[in-house]
Design brief:
With 189 residues, the protein is an alpha/beta fold. It contains 7 helices and 7 strands. The protein starts with a strand and ends with a helix.
């Protein structure tokens, strides 16, 4: 199994930390992992993306031009990365701020109201964990117990008290994902 993922949005949305937690979770699961961030000079508000590869085999290069999954959190990223999802792949997006929704018919498309669900939880910082939970519901590439270990590894110890909140947010995302367009099995071949 190899899963090639791009996570893209604005700086401040937790894009890089979501990728890092996913990567650490893969390490905890004895997978081969790459984590390659890319961001502009702005700290918050600029675009940011991270490529994560999880594999049971050695990874030859962290550089990708097509992805099995794209997790898109803003319109600029949708414009740039929708076309890079491999046919039969998956695109997951938060509709907040997306004015042009994905239109491809050769991929699976899901949406998660991450911004809305984080507000319902009373903590906007849970946004990226809600998105991560939605992704793991669709593509369970790592076990939840390894995500918890990944959180422990990636968060500074002073923030470990927030791990239960993050696990709750992941579960909220798993429970809240919506299918927009799903390929039938015959179309995937």
């Amino acid at each position: 199994m190899t899963e090639e993922i791009i996570i893209a949005g604005f700086g401040g949305q937790g894009v890089l930390s979501m990728g890092k937690i996913l990567a650490y979770s893969g390490v905890m699961q004895d997978q081969e992992v790459t984590w390659m961030p890319s961001y502009g000079p702005e700290m918050r508000g600029g675009t940011a993306n991270v490529t994560v590869i999880l594999s049971d085999e050695r990874i030859s290069s962290p550089i990708l031009h097509e992805y099995d999954t794209a997790i898109i959190l803003n319109q600029q990223s949708m414009d740039k990365f929708e076309k890079t999802v491999k046919p039969g792949g998956t695109l997951l997006y938060d509709p907040n701020g997306i004015v042009k929704v994905p239109t491809r018919t050769d991929i699976n498309i899901y949406k998660i109201e991450g911004t809305k669900k984080a507000a319902e939880m009373g903590n906007p910082k849970t946004f990226n964990m809600i998105i991560l939970g939605a992704y793991l519901q669709v593509k369970p590439v790592v076990l939840l117990e390894n995500v918890k270990k990944g959180l422990e590894k990636s968060l500074p110890e002073r923030h470990h008290k927030l791990i239960p909140l993050n696990i709750d947010a992941i579960q909220k995302g798993m429970d809240s994902i919506e299918s927009v367009h799903i390929l039938d099995e015959a179309a995937k071949c």
